[in-house]
Fold:
Amino acid sequence: MTPDDITRTFLDHYHRYDHQRAPESSLVPPPGDPVLFTTSGMHPLTPYLLGRPYPGGRRLANVQRCLRTTDLDEVGDSTHLTVFQMLGSWSLGDYDIVTSLRWGFELLTDGFGIPAGRLHATVFGGGNGEGPDDTARDTWTGLGVPVEALGEDNWWSNGPTGPCGPDSEIFVWTGDGPPTGTPSTDARWVEVWNHVQMRYHRHPDGRLTPLPHSSIDTGMGLERLEMVLRGDRSVFTGDGLRQWVDAVRDRWNLRGADLRVVSDHLRSAVVVLGDGVRPGNTGRGYVLRRLLRRALTVLWRDDPARTLNDLPPRVYGDTLRRFRQPVDVGSLHAMLVDEERRFRGLLRRGRPIVDRVRARGPLTERDYHWLHDTHGLPRDLVDGLLAEAS
Ligand code: SER
Structure:
C-alpha cells in the first residue's frame, strides 16, 4: 500500500462511521498559540477537546503533518522522523474508548490486513490519582489481543498544560519469528497507534480537573504504518523518504545513522520552509536553522566541499507535492543554499575565535555568553567546534 492508499483506507473507514474530515493545519500554529510547531493531530483541535463545540460535528478524522523536536535526538534510528504525517480520529464527547479500540482493531486487521496475532496493546496501569484502565484492558482481552498495563508511559499530554489522560498504545510485531515478549521487553514490538482518553485538563499550577466531557484522540504515524505494512523495519525505505535517502547516498556516499539524519533533516527543513518559516536566530526559525546545520555538520565532517547545491530539485518537488505545499522549487533551493553559505561563513569566522578562548582553558558560562553576544556564535555551534578540535 502506498501512503495515499493507506490514507484513503483510513479516512474511508472513519467516514463509514460518520466521521467528518477535519482540515489539515500548517506546521505553524495560529498566532497566540504558545507552541512553536504542530506536534500532533490533536493540537489544532485543543480548544474543542477542552469543551468548545466544534462546528464540523463530534466525530472527526484527518491526516496532519507534525514536527517533533522532542524526538530530535532519536532521529538517526530507523523509526523516528522529525516531520511526519499523522492519521487521526476524534470523538469530541461522543463515543467512548471501547468503541474507539474496536474500530481501531477492525481497521488494522480487516482494513490493513495485519494478522491479529501480530498485535499487542498497552494500557494505563494507574497513577495521577486515577486507577488502572480496566475498561481498555478488558476490551483488548475480549478482542483476543494481549495487553500489558504500564504507568506513566500510558498517560498522554501534549505538553505541561492542556487536555490529557490515560492512553492505550497499539504495537505490531516486526520480528522474523513468532512474537515473543511484550512491548516493554522486546523492541521488535513497534508502536503504531495511540488512543488517548482526554478526560482531564492540566492547569499551569499542575492541578488536574475533569473536562466537561471526555473525548477520544487517536494518532497513527503514516510513515511508520507504511513501514509495518511493507514488512520492513525502517521508515527510510518508504515512499516519501526513499528519494531523499537515494539522493543523499548517491551524492555524498553516506551510510547508517549519518544517512538517516541528513535525509530526515533536509526533508524536514523543506517541509518547514514550505509552510513559510525562514531560518532565524529564535523560535521556529532557529529550529529550522538547527536542522540544516546538523545536516551540514554531518556532511562536512568527511568533506567540507560538499554542498546542498548538488541536491536534485526533484526531491524537493516530490516532498512539496506530498505535503500539498505550493512552493516554487527554485526559490526553495536558493534559500537552502543561502543558509549553507551563511553557516560556512560563520564557521570560518568562529573557528579561530573559539580556538583562542579554548587555549585559555575549559569554556565558562561567561565565555559562551560572550561568544554568542559578541560574535553571534550559538552554544551548540561552539560545542560542535570544540568537539571538532578535540
Ligand atoms: N495525541 C496522541 C499522540 O500524538 C494521539 O493522537 O500520540
Observations:
- The pocket of serine is lined by residues 40-42, 88, 156, 194, 196, 217-219 (CB under 6 Å).
- The two ends are 48 Å apart (CA to CA).
- The chain has a mean pLDDT of 93.
- The first strand starts at residue 20 and ends at 21.
